[in-house]
Amino acid sequence: MRLRPWIWPAAASLVAIAAVVLGLLLVDRLGERAIARLQTANAAAARDYFVAFAHDEGVSGLTQALNRYARVGSADGFRYALEDRSGRVVAGADVLRSIDAPDSGWLTVAATASTRPWRVLAQPLGSGYTLVVAEDLRARDALRRAVFRGSALAILLTAFGAAAGGFGLNAMLLRRTRAIADTAERIAGGDLSARAPVHPNGDVFDDLGAAVNRMLGRIDELMTGMRSVTDSIAHDLRSPLTRMKGALVRACDPEAPEAVRLRALDDANIEADSVLGTLNALLDIAHAESGLSQENMQRIDVGGLVLGIAELFGPAVEDAGQALVTDAPAFPVLARAHPALLRQAVGNLLHNAVIHAGPGATVKVSVEETGAGRARILVSDDGPGVPTEHLGRVQERFVRLEAARTTAGSGLGLALVAACAKLHGGRLVLGDNRPGLVAALELADPRS
Amino acid sequence: MGAKILVVEDDGGTAETLLSGLRQEGYTVEHVADGRDALYLASSADFDAVIMDRMLPGMDGLSVVKALRAADVHTPLLILSALGQLDERVKGLHSGADDYLAKPFAFSELSARLAVMLRRPAIRQEATSLSCGDLEMDLLKRRVTRAGRRLDLLPREFKLLEHLLRHKDRVVTRTMMLEELWDYRFDPHTSLIDTHISRLRKKIDDGFDTPLLHTVRGSGYRLSERP
Predict the structure, then answer these.
(1) Cross-chain residue pair B86–A284, CB shorter than 8 Å
(2) ipTM score here?
(3) Is the CATH number 3.30.420.10 carried by domain B4-118?
(4) Closest chain A residue to the Cα of B160, Cα to Cα
């Protein structure tokens, strides 16, 4: 079941009200008990004091003291009196005359129309006299009410403050999440430039906004990339398809001699292969970039794999008038890799060297272990190299530099190597070999 | 020949090309267009080889292959599919297929692969020597002689020659050699094989009267005494 947003404040208010009521009840009960305990102790202390007084000063001294005390009066609600054998008040507070005090111990006297409620403690002093300590229960009630009012005020103030804070925080949360939701709405509505508001040195919502913005940036980048790739595909497939169509038109010409028509068919065949090659390379790159190829990854000896591909390219390098040097550790360099894709990536790097390094160049292939489960494959040459400003660009799809316009190629070779590196948790780094080009393919799969 | 081939293909045009091509080469061919029919036929009748499309009505090709292998039917099987990416190929071979060819394909390529599949058990891996005419290869001493004369081959040339000898008198295509010798599957680089072949040819045929290594136009290479 989905909870509506108003459910939360309603539930919170209910809980708060219940807590306040419970708190007040608790304060009342606890306050009453605390006051009762305190007053009982006070009464006992007064009794003990006057008993000691009588012992030291005699009954006449006590009589004087009690009378004086009654004259001066007290604000604490206690009254003291001395009764004789017949229960008559002989000294102290006159108000206690109407009370029928017990001989000894505690007694609570309820209020009547003319008297107050009292709590009485009687203590026989010997020779027929009884000390009476009486507490005015109305004074006790006043104290209890005062404590209750103070506590109630504090609790209500706290509850009000908490509620105000809660509502404020809630409003802030709603406002901040709404800002991010608004951004999402605008994106959904087609405004891809929308970004969540972010303040520098901000809080967790700014972190969230920044993460959302990074995601949007990546999506934007991918969409722009896809658009440019789509344009490039259209352009790059149109050229061979146009040439193929031309060749097929030549082959269909009934006037043309057989040899010409056969050559035209051959040409069409070659162009078809080029289109297929481009499509396959694009699919392989897309597969590698999407991470779908993960399922075919396994632990392999990268050194052996690279040496195998170097052996395959050996004669081609020699035919180009170049020399091939290989260097790999004598021990297996184990790493988690996608063998088929990695072979093709290394093949592409070697193919590039054969095509672009020129005769007389030395092509070097080496493998290094850069850590447990990590490896670096280096393919370098001492040919003309790639101008530094283009080193990043040539890794993109369909990018072909001016110097390479005349040679055959799809412009996808390095893009595949870069995608392969990414699949392996590493990257392709192109650098200046002074002279020539050095390509470093890093394998750093975190799962190795 | 007369080997019995089951073609499983739902695309009419492709099926027609396959059927007429295979019949022309002397095979007996049966054709079904549905995955379930293919599973039923291949597991009940006795075929020498199966050519199987992947995306089929009824039941997809990979499931058919898996079901056949699970039922202990080990008829040589080649998958022919428009899904040509590296990963799809690996998946196809993992399912139990013996070979995987991407569409579009050259019929000569299919025919060469089919021929190899059909005679696979003929030469056992345990053979210690191979020969073709006066060319002899000692697999234990890793030595090659022709007409008694010792030929000095690089390891990569030895590997290539051994492969050709194992498929003596058969056409071996460039992609087959790339795949089986170097595990490399990338059509634009198939011409690499030519660079290897030209070196091998120089060593085994130069200075001898009858050439053994023949180029088959449009397909690949063939090692044979017959021209």
Answers:
(1) yes
(2) 0.82
(3) no
(4) A312
